[in-house]
Amino acid sequence: MIEYRNLRIALLGAGSVGAQVADQLLTHADELAARVGAGIELVGVAVRDTDAPRTTDIPRELLTTDAESLILGADIVVELMGGLEPARTHILQALNSGADVITANKALLATHGPELFEAAEQVGAQLYYEAAVGGAIPIIRPLRDSLAGDRVTRILGIVNGTTNFILDRMDKHGETMEQALATATELGYAEADPTADIGGYDAAQKAGILASLAFHTLVPADAVYREGITAVTLDDVRNARKAGYVVKLLAICEKLLDPETGREGVSARVYPALVPDEHPLAAVHGANNAVFVEAEAAGPLMFYGAGAGGIQTASAVLGDVVSAARRHVAGGPGVAESTHANLPVLPISAVTTRYQITLQVADQPGVLAAIATLFSEHGVSVETVEQSVASTGGGDGAAAPAATLVIGTHEATEADLAATVAALTTSTVVHCVTGVLRVEGL
Ligand code: NAP
Q1: Ligand 1, residues 21, 81, 189: which to mutate, most atoms within 8 A of Cβ?
Q2: Is domain 4-136+311-330 in CATH 3.40.50.1370, yes or no?
Q3: Pocket test for ligand 1, best of 65, 129, 313 (most atoms within 8 A of CB)
Q4: 4-136+311-330 with 351-439: one CATH topology?
Q5: Structural contact between residues 73 and 8, judged by C-beta atoms closer than 8 angstroms
Q6: The CATH number of 140-306 is which of 3.30.1120.10, 3.30.360.10, 3.20.20.70, 3.40.50.1240?
Q7: Where are the domains of the chain?
Q8: Nearest CA to ligand 1 atom 2
Q9: C or N terminus of the chain, fewer CB within 10 Å?
Q10: Interval between CA 80 and ligand 1 midpoint (Å)
């Protein structure tokens, strides 16, 4: 048997994830070596402050602030610093020196992915990023390798644990959005500035990564249609429950026919949506993540688990370390990202889906008929109508009798739905439109 030299691993970052990766590399070095067929040696860990306390025991002599020197001579560079710079520069330096690179940095991939993949391809190195979507959940490798012979048609993902935690609190504990966000912050599920999570930006970055892989097409994060959860009210969540749904922030990637051209394209979008109670994604609680994949031959597949957490995410990073190390031992160039399909990325107007619309209306005869006519005039067909017990108040200070209507539609285009909602808001029998949510997963 050929004795392979030790593979040199440089780690950039020793925070929540990096400290756990260092610990695993040091503690399980023998086991990893046996799996790889070569020794795995952690040669250094770059940080900002070598004296800062660490959550795991990292020998002091491994810590350095000189990332550039550490990268030189490494076989595998693991980037767990986060942020765009200097992470991008370090990754380019590593790839250009022929090292394989592992990153969990979805923000960097969403912004500079094409440049980084191109650099890897130029030198025959490989960029691994299993931990960039879904934390511990294996989803990148299944899409890239296991399903490489199949054709993925749709992905529905809960890929942001913070927003799933918040929506789950609203559903299970009756908390308002503000209360649930405060709970998430207190328990460490939300950052001090939660914009990236509740604004849907983090989920959009992950949707771009998943859509690119699944459909062999470059889908940048800024081409992903995005709505966050800030407009979701406790009433929306309660009305959803009554109608047999739960509200989830979904990342949706699918192949569609463009109604304008009749050509196939890719839709990637993030928004809060109603998911039927019986759909597997409805059972994803707390800060967990799940990715539901539909493929032509495989049918529906569900990937579920911890979407974040230092040690959980380290599991996915270590898997990439083993893959990269095995590639070094086997030799040969890295596998380039496949964008051969190069499909157009479609705008949200190309999407048809079902909707649930909640209205405050005048409680008087003829209102239902007037509203049904208004929907049909705009090409939207009503499937269900729920009317709640009449109350008083029209939202303008008047004490007119009012009722709440929750209307479920058949499939309609975004344009027809928008025209319907605009007409509802100016109708004399409608006091106000209090909620518009799409229905997915049917
Ligand atoms: P973190 O706790 O903030 O740790 C960042 C580490 O990088 C720290 O050790 C820091 O050094 C070091 N660092 C930052 N800037 C540096 C610089 N300019 N030079 C040298 N070292 C630098 O981050 P994290 O939560 O572990 O996340 C790391 C990556 O994993 C991010 O891309 C994140 O999006 C991704 N990720 C995280 C999770 C999670 O659950 N945390 C899940 C999935 C993906 P000091 O310690 O000295 O400050």
Answers
A1: 81
A2: no
A3: 313
A4: no
A5: yes
A6: 3.30.360.10
A7: 4-136+311-330, 140-306, 351-439
A8: 15
A9: N
A10: 5
- Measure 33 CA to ligand 1 centroid, in angstroms: 26
Is 206 annotated as catalytic?
yes
Name the stretches of the chain with pLDDT < 70.
1-3, 389-400
| C-alpha span between 70 and 75 (Å, rounded) | 11
CB count, 10 Å around CB of 157? 29
Whether residue 300 contacts residue 292, with contact meaning beta carbons closer than 8 Å, is answered with: yes
| Dist CA 434 CA 413 (whole Å) | 20
Question: Model's pTM, two decimal places?
Answer: 0.94
Which protein residue's CA is at the shortest distance from atom 4 of ligand 1? Answer: 15
The CATH H-level (homologous superfamily) assignment of domain 351-439 is ACT domain (3.30.70.260)
Count of C-beta atoms within a 10 Å radius of residue 336: 14
Structure confidence by residue, pLDDT tens digits, 294-335: 999 999 999 999 999 999 999 999 999 999 999 999 998 888
Q: What DSSP state is assigned to residue 359?
A: E
- For ligand 1, the distance from its centroid to the CA atom of residue 209, given in whole angstroms, is 20
For residue 47, give the ligand 1 atom closest to its CA: 21
The answer to whether 87 and 64 are in contact (CB under 8 A) is no
